[in-house]
Amino acid sequence: MEILLEELYKTEIHLEKYHFRKLFIDEKSYQITGISQSGKTKIIKHYLLGLKKSSYIYIDCNDVRIDVEKLNASLLSFCNKNKIDVLVLDNYNPEFKFVNVSQLIIASEIDYDLEYLEKLQLYPLDYEEFLAYEHKYDSTALNHFFQLGGLPVMHKIYADERNLFLQKVIRNTLDDVEFDIMMLCAKMMSQKLSAYTIYERLKVIRKISKDKLYKSFENLQEKNYIHLLEKLNHSKATKKVYLCDTSFKSALSVEKNFGRLFENMIFLELLKSGTQCYYEDGIDFYLPNTDEIILCKPFADERRLFQKLESIEAFIFTHSIKKITAVSMNKEGGLSHPLASVAIIPFDIWALGD
C-alpha cells in the first residue's frame, strides 16, 4: 500500500469551475453526507486546493486498488512520515480506520453518527444555488430548474442522455430492492404512501420479505433519497412521500403530473431551508413556527383560490393562521381575507425570499 499511498499523495487535484454552495468547510473535522452526485467531492476538493499540497492526502475509498487491511496498517506511519495534517476519506465506509491527524474529512451517503465530527448535510442545489450555474437570470432559469433538477452534474449532460444517466447513477448507488422502491415512489411522488402499500405492490412482481422491504424503505429515508412528510398531530397517519430531486421523476416514471412535481419542488425548498412543516387534508404545507399555510398553485387564479380558502377556513381559524401563500409559476397578486394575509407569489420570487 505504500506505493499507492505515495501515488495518491503526489497526485494533483483538479477541479473545474467551482460554484459556491451554502455549505462550506473550514479547519474543523467533518462528516459530509449527501446522495450521489450532490456535490460532496467538489466541496472537499475546493477546500483542499486552498491548502499546501504536501499537507493533505485525498483517498477515494471506492478505489479498487485499495487493500483496506493493508491501508489501515500503513496509513498512520505514512501520515506521520510526510507530516500530513489533513486526511480525506471520500466515499467512506467503516472498514477504513481513522488515524490521528489535525483534520479529518469523510464523505458518504450514510450518516455514521460520529460525535467527534462536525456534520454537514448536503442536499442537491436549491433554486438560489442553481442560479449560479445559469448564464443569465431571466424567465428561462426556472424552466431549466424544472428540466435539470438540483444535481450539479446535470448541467453537463445532453438532454437526450439525462434520464439514462440518472438511471445509471441510481442503479449504481442502490440495491435492487431500494431501486424498485424508488421507482414506485417516483410514481407516487407528493402523495400518501406507506411501506405496507409498497410491500403489497412489490410482492406481486418480486419475491421479497416484509422485513427486507421495510428496512430498504428506511435506508432510502436515512440516505435522503426520499423524504416523508407527517400529517399534523397524526404521527401514525400515512405520510406523504417526496423525491430528493425532481429530476428523478422523469428518469424513473413515464407518468406526468406537473402539479405533483411543483409540490415536490416547493417541499425541497422548505426542507433545504430547515423549515418545519406538516400536511393536513386540503393543505399542502402548514408551517407552525410562522403560523403560515403554503398552497401549491402553479396556475393559480383568484376565483379558485378564494374557493380553496373557503374550504379550509375552519383550519385557518382554529390554528390562528396569519399568512397564506399560494406559490404559482408566474402569477403574482393577493386576496382580501378577514383572518390572514393572502398572497400569490411566483416560485422564483418565493424561493429567493427570506
Describe the 3D structure.
This protein is of the alpha/beta class and 354 residues long. The protein has three domains: 2-121, no CATH class; 126-272, Orthogonal Bundle (Arc Repressor Mutant, subunit A), CATH 1.10.10; 275-354, no CATH class. The chain contains 14 helices and 14 strands. It has helices at 2-10, 40-48, 68-81, 127-130, 139-148, 162-173, 176-187, 195-202, 210-222, 247-252, 258-272, 302-311, 313-318, 347-351; strands spanning 30-33, 56-60, 86-90, 103-108, 118-121, 191-192, 226-229, 240-243, 278-280, 283-287, 292-296, 323-328, 333-335, 341-346. A six-stranded mixed sheet has the order 9-10-11-12-14-13. A hairpin with a 5-residue loop joins strand 13 and strand 14. Helix 7 crosses helix 9 and helix 8 (195-202) packs across helix 9. The longest helix has 15 residues, at 258-272. The chain is globular and about 75 Å long.
